[in-house]
């Protein structure tokens, strides 16, 4: 059994302050015994929405502070001797370098010409501080709900074009996805078929969709893949506006770890005012192996005879 820590925090447009929040959570969760620590999507920053659309995201993505953010977490992983998963904005023209030549790293390390947009990237950093995996979010959050939510992530973000095969770590084989990917069962089934034991969904869910869909979707992914699911989350108001001004962007929180039976085995709190927090759970791969034997979903699939295999 190995302990994992799932984190919940409120990133703002200040990258240095987000880094110090993450490093403090890292230190506290490592002293509590965590061997791997999971930070949410866009831990580096959530833009304030000021200025011309997209300009702030483009600028912060390419800033020196943003390079320092990844470097700071790499140093932290090494110092504490733990693995880290974290979501960041990646500059396509100066891609974050993945160590090692296997795992399709060569093409992910090549620059892509685009002076405006970013990749929404999920990094897994090993306990020596190397970037061992980089997954670029493939499903972008483009929605226009009548009378409510209107977000077009693809205005600022280039979609990734591949899944990364699961990565062996001391807590298990990690399958990397991000946030809105949760709504699509196909990538989780594909990663499970490739050997994943733990699916990761670093997220920044909206409050309305989170209240209705977050926990049921995470539990469904855990139950149908018979994997652990670790879902770190942004929470609360990201860049509070002065009294009376328009409300800034807000996230749902409820960071959690779900076991392969679908039980929520750790969850960050929902008490306000929100403070950065983490919750711990044991990852028990031997019980997971028994469950997979007792209920052998992967031998019982009727693909490709009556539906396509994934
Ligand atoms: O770009 C950033 O700064 C951080 N990225 C996000 O917050 C992304 C894209 S806007 N959020 C989601 O995918 C929410 C999905 C969601 O809420 C749902 O599926 O219901």
Defining key terms:
single chain, 310 residues, alpha/beta, Nitrilase/N-carbamoyl-D-aminoacid amidohydrolase, eight-stranded mixed sheet, six-stranded mixed sheet, 16 strands, binds N-(4-carboxy-4-oxobutanoyl)-L-cysteinylglycine
Describe the structure.
With 310 residues, this protein is of the alpha/beta class. It has helices at residues 15-31, 55-61, 64-80, 105-108, 185-193, 207-225, 285-294, 297-300; strands at residues 2-9, 36-38, 83-90, 119-125, 131-136, 142-144, 150-152, 167-169, 172-176, 198-200, 228-231, 233-237, 250-252, 256-258, 264-267, 277-283. Strands 1, 2, 3, 4, 5, 12, 13 and 16 form an eight-stranded mixed β-sheet that branches. The longest helix has 19 residues, at 207-225. Residues 41-42, 46, 120, 141, 151, 153, 179-180, 183, 204-206, 209 line the site of N-(4-carboxy-4-oxobutanoyl)-L-cysteinylglycine (KGT). It holds the Pfam family CN_hydrolase. Residues 1-285 form the CN hydrolase domain. This is Putative NIT2-nitrilase.
